[in-house]
Specification:
Shape: elongated
Number of helices: 6
Largest sheet: 4 strands, antiparallel
Strand order of the largest sheet: 1-2-3-4
Helix content: 25-40%
Number of strands: 4
Strand content: 5-15%
Length: 150
Amino acid sequence: MALWPVHQPSMLAVGAAVKQGYRIEPCPVCGGPEIFSKIQPKSRCFRCGALREHMAVKQHKTSWRRCALCNKPAMAGISLDRRYCAKCQSLSDHERAKRRRWKAERESTIERGASQTPITTGLISPAPPEIDPQAQTASNDPAGVASEDE
């Protein structure tokens, strides 16, 4: 014996909703299956037929595209043939060229990694080895060498 009357078309609709990934929750009034819309803040109960409007929550839209200069994902709503976000697009051609060069230099230094330190590239000369003044005088003193041999 079913807990609530089974209506075949509504059960088919619930089965299709499950397959298509709709959110289904129990109705707060009758306990029947309430199916939520994917694009609107609405839901409908398939037992009592009540249509409910819910409080809309604005979705945070992020874009899969990134700006070619600043690398921020701020490209939502911009035509696909544009390479730059609105902020970088407003820059002059000269400024964009400078930033592209700067970005290329920065990426090339990152690719070199930690193995290319300023000392190995020759940008900084290595410090001279530490010289002990007492060891230098002992080796230059012929009297000290003769006294050690005896």
